[in-house]
Amino acid sequence: MKEITVSGQKRTDLGKKASKALRKSGYVPCNIYGEAKENGKPVAMAFASPMAELRKIVYTPHIYVINLNIDGESHTAILKELQFDPVSDALLHVDFLEVNDQKPITIGIPVKLVGLAQGVRDGGRMNLSIRKINVTAPYQQIPEHLDIDVTGLKIGKSIKVGDLSFDGLEMATSKNVVVCSVKMTRNAAADDSAAADDSADAAAADAAPAAAE
Question: What is the pTM of this model?
């Protein structure tokens, strides 16, 4: 995964009024969850980061390992959850999950289809059903995207998660989930119908002389 650095400042005032004031000043309230627990629940450290820096990791198709610098303290993390305003779609809150090289994490990895499917060459249409597949692995082993070869995929056929295998990665998405498929189009169906009619006509023409004899 790509790496990026984001700065932050610890915050102690966690009320709605304080959070609103932070957003007005160009910051976004954040939490980072680590290994520490209290009463069996993860303990979050509250901080705020500049929207200008968060924009780079939120509004992007890429996934990042994020080097958080919070008041001089370094934390390695990934995005855990984003909260947006339902009306304005403005970013309201960000949760981070602290990671280390000992404990595997589960994260969604973007899917990248490689090659031109046989079914598309035959007039079908490629349909991508999911854009990310959840995998589990130490964060250093997680790639930026999952390359899936679709060259041999024919019309009416699909690739499921269970058909895939990547070194060092454990699939966390259900194996029955369809990743992509090639659908029949009207043009392809018309071509098939025309080909069938031509074959029938040819067969009839071949049979006519035999019947005449």
Answer: 0.76
